[in-house]
Structure formats: structure tokens, C-alpha cells
Amino acid sequence: MLTLSLILLPVVAATLLLLIKSPAVKTLALGAALVELALAAYAFATFKADAQMQFEFDYPWIAGAGIRFSGGIDGISVLLVLLTGLLTPLITLSAFGREYDRPSTFYSLILYMQAALMGVFTARDAFLFYLFFEAALIPVYFLAAMWGGEKRIAVTFKFFIYTIFGSLFMLVALVYLYYQTGVPGKPGVHSSAIVDFYNLNLTPAAQGWVFWAFFIAFAIKMPVFPFHTWQPDTYVESPTPATMLLSGIMLKMGVYGLIRFLLPIVPAGLETWGLLATTLSVTGIVYGSIIAIRQRDMKRLIAYSSFAHVGLMAAGVFSQTANGLQGALIQMLAHGINVVGLFFVAEIIFGRTNSRFLDQLGGITRTTPKLTVYFMILLLGSVALPLTNGFVGEFLLLNGVFAYNNWLGAVAGLTIILGAVYMLRMFQKSMFGPTSARTETFDDLSGAESWVLLPLAVMVFWIGIYPNSFLKVTEPAVLNLLQYVVK
Amino acid sequence: MLPIILLSVFGIVLLFMGFLKSKVLLLPATLVFILAALATTFMDWGKTYLYFQNMLLTNNLAILFTTIVLLSAFMVVALSNSFIEDEQAQPAEYYALLLFSLVGAIMMISFENLIMLFVGVEILSVAMYVLAGSDKHSPRSNEAALKYFLMGAFATGIMLFGIALLYGATGTFVVSGIKSYVYTNAYGVSLLLYMGIILLLIGMLFKVSAAPFHFWTPDVYDGTPGLFTAFMSTVVKTAGFAALFRVLSVSFVGVYSFWWGTLAALTCLTLLIGNVTAVYQTSFKRMMAYSSISHAGYLLIGLTALGTQTKQALVFYSLAYSLATISAFGVLLVVSRQRQDTNGVNENFDAFNGLARQNPLLGFVMAVSMLSLAGIPLTAGFWGKFMIFTTAADKGIYWILVFAVLMSTVGIYYYFRVIIAMYFREGAAEPVKVAPFYRYVLIAATILTLVLGLAPGLLEGLV
Amino acid sequence: MKPIEIVFYVLTGITLLSAITVVTARNPIHSVLALIATFFCLSGHYILMNAQFLAAVNIIVYAGAIMVLFLFTIMFLNLRREDEESKTNLTKMAAVVVGGILMVTMLLVFRAVQLPAVNEGNFDARTGLVEQLGIMLYSDYLLPFELASVLLLVAMVGAVMLGKREAGDRHF
Lengths: 487, 463, 172
Hints:
The structure holds three protein chains of three kinds.
Chain A: H1 2-18, H2 25-45, E1 54-62, E2 67-73, H3 75-94, H4 103-122, H5 126-135, H6 137-147, H7 152-180, H8 194-198, H9 204-221, H10 231-237, H11 240-265, H12 267-293, H13 298-318, H14 322-353, H15 369-383, H16 389-404, H17 406-431, H18 447-465, H19 468-485
Antiparallel strand pairs in A: 1-2
Chain B: H1 2-17, H2 26-41, E1 49-51, E2 56-58, H3 60-78, H4 81-85, H5 91-109, H6 114-132, H7 139-170, H8 175-184, H9 191-207, H10 217-223, H11 226-251, H12 256-279, H13 284-304, H14 310-338, H15 355-358, H16 360-374, H17 380-395, H18 398-424, H19 436-454
Chain C: H1 3-24, H2 28-48, H3 52-77, H4 89-112, H5 130-139, H6 142-163
Helix pairs in contact in C: 1-2, 2-3
Protein name (chain C): NADH-quinone oxidoreductase subunit J
Transmembrane segments (chain C): 6-25, 32-49, 55-78, 90-113, 141-162
Organism (chain C): Arsenicibacter rosenii
């Protein structure tokens, strides 16, 4: 019931919001998101640290075909449920600063997105997962295309088609796997429960192409080099709440998919192609970081940094080690928090100075002590300074990748150095130095803005100082998953 | 059987009702007649009846297809009130022809004797030729009618030749009789049978606008008045595919290895031509014509991969496709009339600019239709495509599946052009006026699409 | 050669000649007259196959009613010589190829097929006569026969609907 209400509550709230015309719609949306956060926090708090699926629900959907409407939370999805529940009210609150026209549509789209994301992370049936995976695209497409920047129509369309193209391959693979399941003695009976896919014995050739089908779908979503061309433009042209949803939660769907589907179902495919996949991911890290160093637009810089970080997460997953997987899970949580905070800071700066270009900014720290502190905390989290969340994630990930392949691990380790370069450069150019014409009068954070950044900062330190509160929750499920991999 | 009798009688009644001074009664009367036919269809549920010495066979599958056809006709008639009023035409004849064409469609769905198939095809086709040319003052309508008639008559002639050859090979017109001939002569099937299958397929594939017999479709759909295009693209296709399914799955399943390769090649050609040409269209109506060709391709996948899943897939896909097409045409009709440009009725994509802001309801209805036709999840169209894909996977023909998936992606491009025009472009300032009853029909179709998209299991087990 | 075979070959020859004349004649009236000749020869073929009713109906309906309609239309439209544009060479080539493939396939099938021999004992010489046809039509095939009336009704309603004079039409 809990999981089902996690999915249905935002849907109901969003539909009701569509009917409300008054300006109170913003607070109502925030209220709904906070209730959802309470549910997600409750789920996290009462989660038992074992390898079982908890808070399950299971209803027949297309019962004759063995396709069921079933979901639940296990160790792999619990952190992502928490992330979605935590980030949505913060994203909603962050949108209060800007007056978006047609607010009821705007906020209900954010809530619909949250419902779809919750569905993706809690689905136990492969086709239900696919449905939510695709359904999550629709709200974010409308959010980006209706309230986005100038080039939004072409950019968001490219994003939509590119992503759907990838996931259609995944659909073919899922249908194929569905037809491979069966009950011996009962022909024509199949099942689409994900755990049934784990127990399939696929031929190496089949494993190869199923691997590629899944990889293409998730690689486009995350993105992984070279399927990343949609990402910077889409992140920049979207309105900031949409960018936060995209980078904070939606790209995690790709990593989650890798862990949930790719690793356990096609281990032999992973044996054959894993090195190539890891190399692509690591290439993305270095490539993204180098381009980020050259960026003048803050939003684009953060977008490329997100691309670099996700490359490390993917590499960690492909390393097939417990450390790599644990690192990916905690880094998903950490990166979501950091990147949402960073985009919010960029939005605050844009809101006050009407510019995101670093050469037009400078000296903001003079009048904004609070903003400086929060910005620095989030930045250091992104740079992976010890005691911050990023450090825990990157340490575990690099550990995993290094164990898989020393050279790739060494190259991936460059992310620490390069990340520090572009992040600190961004901070220095925007906050320090002489003020420019735009930044002379820069008000410090308002109450609502502080309320967004404070929880993020708290989480940065909580995960950084006491990561075990999160890691112990995920560990049994990760070890359970790995038994399918090391065959 | 009863629906056929009822609809014929009601058609004649409507012709007489055309003598009345006031035309107000015609639309409700037609709707009531269609509902009565629908009610009598369900009387045969659960049983398999053979009527009149192997002339008609009614089983659950035929009842489902008949329901889809009657539902489509109901929606088209319900959407017709504003359209027919201002034409100063005689609506009684149009409605009567629609009812008669339904007779033909039902005959095509529940035939057991190939003669019934032929007569049914002819009734449906002749009614469609007339309705295509019903806008007498428009040269495009005249062109559409003539093109459809000439090519259609030719195709029917070929089909009849095929039926004659089948008789020559098997000695019977009855579908189950042909099946037993094929099974008893498994190794020595007469060559005339193969020739007959090919010619019959050519005739039927023409009717459902599969490539390379699709050349009539864009001009005919474009020239026909919008309402009748909606009827043509849904009812004729549903009836055609029901007929193809019956004839292929009962009579010719024994020689599956002979015809499946040809049908597979035609499927790929249809998908390719339908999707790729639709990308280049600037007129919404023409785009819908090409898209209906591509949907014929998807339905053909179900036939190529004939198996246990095919029935369910064809029924669900036809239903999803009919709902989405008719609501899309419903929105097109009202928008193209009220947002005319220099050439009169504007059926291009730019007529939809800014529609979502002025008429959020119309925008939402059209968006859901387009998403359903594109096969995006949360709509019935996704599950229709999914079921078709599972038929191909069931037979193990994965290359068709991959090709269909690629073509789906191409399809998303042109379906989204409307959504982009509606939501993200600026358009005319005044909202489009929609009559209340019209609105209810569109809302009902959209709700049904969404409900089936979320709970496809509702229709499961019915087939 | 038996006399009946001679009749068959002569009739076939005339049929093919007049059919070719229909397609190739310049003057449309010649075309129509050749079509009438073709129909008469086809009726002759029907008689050879013992389908007397069909032969009679063919002459009455086709060579009689429909051909008269053709002549009237041609005379109304005042067509003289053929002055329509020819199709492009590509179209002609495609038509030849497609038609040719169909013809070759059908010829091969008809040559290779083994039709069952006529069973002399079972053969009923009255099969094509009106009485037998009537019995079949009104017993076994009653349903399609009656439903064909719906088809005729549709055609009639359609013809009247499309051809009716409306207010504002041009009068010729």
C-alpha cells in the first residue's frame, strides 16, 4: 500500500491541481510534495536492511499474459525513492522564485513527473517499468517545451525522439525475454516479473544483443558517451525546475536500469562487452570534464559536469563489484542532491543578474554570505572533498573501477582533479573578484531560497560524515544482486 | 445475422424519414438504430452460430469486430451534426448509406462463404465510392470518388478472379471447406489454390491500403469530406482485417509457409512507405492518410506472424486505432472549418497553431489521439502495438519487430508536429466553437483511450 | 479435330481480335463496337460451356444495356479521335512488366494444373439452365442473393444522390 500510495498520491494531487486557478496552487503543490516526502522518509526509516522486497503490491494487469501490476521497494530502489521524495518539494519550492504562467499546469506536471519516477524505481514487472520509463518523458517534455528557452522546440523534440528511439530497443529486448520465460510443461505461459528474467539461461549470442539493446536505451538516458549530444542543449533550454528533474532524478533511471536489468540478466554479455562499455563511460568522464572547463555558461557547465559524473557511476556499475554498486547507489543520491543545489544556485544568480555567463559575473560574495556558504558546500560535495557526500560515492566507485581494470580506474580518477578545476573555476569567476555592473546590487538569499538549500547542505554532510546509515540499507540487496552476476 | 437485417431495414426507414420536413430527427434516429444493432450483436455472445447453410459464422471474435465497427460508426454519426447541417444536403441519404455500408462491413466480418465476402466488400465499397464523392461542388471530392471507384472496381475484379480460382481448386466457396481441402491435400495442393490466394490477397490488401496497392489512399482520403474519411479509414480497415484474418487463419493456415514470406515483404514495404512519406506532408489530412497506411502495416505484422495471440492483438489494435483516428478527425473537422485560410477550409498543420491555449479540451483530445497513434505508453495505442509486437516475438520473427520499432520512431516525428503546433506555437486569438454533444463524444473517446491504456486487461479474455 | 473444337478456336480468335481492337482502336465508337463483339463471342463461349442462362443474361445486360449506356455517354461527350496524353515511358514499361509477370504466372499455373476429369456418370446436362440456377439461387444462395439487393439499392441511392440537380448547378 505504501508504494502504491507513493505512486498514486502525486497523480491525484496533480489532477486536482489542474482544476485550481488561484495562486494558492503553488502552496498546495508544495504541500502534496511534502506529504510524499513524509511517506518516502517513513519508507526509508522503516526499511529492513535485508535482501527482501518490501512494501509490495501486486495486482493482475493483463493476467492471462502473466503481466502484473506489481511493485515494491528493495535495497536497490530505497535510496532512489528517498531521493525522489526529497528533491520534489525542494524543486517545487525553488520554482516559487520565478512567476511561471499557467502555474497549475506547471506544478501538476512536476507532480506527474514525480509519480512516473516513483513508478520506475518501484516497478517489479518489466513492462510496468517500461511504461513508467516512457511515461516519465511526457511531463518533462511539456515542461521543457512550454516554459523553456528560445530554441526549446527543436531541442526538446530531439531529446524526446532520441530517448524513445533508445527505449524502443529495450522494449524489443523485454519482449524477447518475456517469451524466453516459461513454466516447463505449460507452453504459452510467460511471465514478465523482473526476477523471472534473472533466472533465464540465455545463449551467449542472445546475451550479446540483449546487452546492446539495454545498453543503448540506458546509455541514451544517462547519457553515456557518445550518446550524449541531446543533453547539454536540453538542460540549458529547459526551465530550471525541469533541468533539476532531468539531472537530479531522471538520469538516475538509466543507472538504476543498468543495475536492475543489465547486470543480472546478461552477465555473459557483460563479460564480452563490459570493457567497451566501461571505456565509453570513462571517456565520457574525461570528455565531459574537459568541455566543462571551457564553459562560460554556468548552466551548461553544470550540465557537462553532470555528464562527467554519470560516466563514473556507469563505470562503477560495469565493474561488477560490491564497492562499485554501492558507490553507484550512494553517488546517485549524492549527485542528485549536489546537482539540484548547483542548478538552483545558477538560477538564483540568473534571477538576480539576468545572466549565466561567468565573464559577466563576479564578486557576488561581497553581499551574500549565506549564498557563498551554501554554494561552497554543494560545490565541495560535487568535487568530492572528504566529509561530503560526493567523496563517499566517488571513493567507492573508483575503488570498484580500479578493481575491474587498473588503467581505466586511473583515468577515471582524473575526475577528481578535473572536477575540482571546473567547479572551483566557476566559483571563483562568479563569486570572487571584482563585481561587475550586473552583480553590484545582489540581495542575499530569501527565506524560501534558504529553505531549499539548507536541507541539501544538511544531506551533503550527513551522507559524507555518516554514510553507513545509507550504505547498510543497500548492502544486502547489492550482494544479493551480485550473485546473479558472478556466474 | 440480426444486425445485418436490422441495419438494412433501418437504412430504408431512414430513406423514408428523409421525406419529413424537419431534419432534426435524423441524427438521433440513426444513433438509436446503430445502438439497436449493437445490442442485437451481443445476443449471440458465447455461442458460435452458422447461419443459412454455411453463409455466415458468428463467434465471439466476429462480435468484437462488429462492436468496433458499430462503435466507430456511432462516433462518426455523432460527430456529424454540425457538419451536415450547413451543407444543405440531404442527410437522410448519407446516414442511410452509412448504415448500408455497415451491412457490408458486418458481412465482411462474419462471412463463412466467399460469395458473402464478395457481396459484403462490394456493398461497403460502393457506399464508400458514393460518400467519397458526396461533396459535389469540390473537384477534389469528385476526383477522389472517381479514383476510388475505378481502382476499387479493378481490385474487386481481381479478388473475384481469385475466388473463382479457389473454387476451381477446392470445389467449394465455404471457408471451412477450403480448410479441409488444404489439410487433406497437404502435399498436393492444386496450383490454382496458390494463384487464388495471391489474387484474393491482392484484392483485400487494396481495400486496406497496404503497399504497393496504396496509391489511391492519399488522394481519396484527402478529397473525401473529413467525416467520411474518418469512417473510411477506420471501418473499412477493421472490416478488411477481420476478413483477412478469417480467411488466412482458417482456410489458408495450412499453406502458411507459402504466403507468409510475401506478406512479410509487403508488411515492411507498407510500414516504410506509410511512415516515411507521412513525414513530408504539410496537410494534416494527408498525413493521416499516410499514417493509416502505416497502421495497415502494423496490423499486417499481426497477420504475418499468425498465431494464438493474433486475434487479441488485431482486436485491441483496431479499437485503439479507431478511437484515436475518429477523435483526431473530430478535432480536425471543427478546427479546419473555423480557422479557414485563403483557400477555404484549412487542413494544414498550421491551422492547429496555439489551439491548446484557446481550447484546452480540443488540444488535450488531439494530443491523446496523437500519442495513441504514435504508440506512447499510457494510451491504448501503446498496448495495441505491444500486442502486435508480441505476436511477432511469439513466432520468432524478430527482424520485423526491429523494423517496426524503427518505423515507430519515424512515426513519432509526424504525430508530434501537431502537438508542437498546438502547444508551443502562437495562433489565432479566438477559441474554436464546439457544440456540447460534439464535445462529449470527443471526451468519451479520449477517456476510453486512456482507460484502455492504463488497464488493458479489461478486454482480456473476451476474445 | 472435332467440330466443337473448331468452333471453340474460331470463337476464341474472334474474341481476342475484338478485345485487342477495343484497346487499340482510335475512334471510341469503334472501340465500343469491338467490345460488343467481344461480349457476343463470350456469350458463345458460355453456350459452349453449357451456361445458357449466363449467355443470355450476358447479351441482355452487357451487350445490351451497358454498351448502349457507353454509346450514349460517348455521343454526349462528343469524343472523336483519341486525344488523351500518353503516359510516360516509365509507366508504360512498369505496366508491361507487372502485367507481363501476372500473365506469365497465370499461364504457368494454368498449364501445370491438373484439373479432375469430367465424371461422365455424374454429369448433369441441365446444370447451366435457368431452372437449376433458380433452384440454387433461391435455396442455397438465398442470403447473398437478397443481400445483393442492398448493394443495388446503395448503387441506386448513390447514383441519384450524385447525379441529382441541385440549386445553383450549371445547366448544360
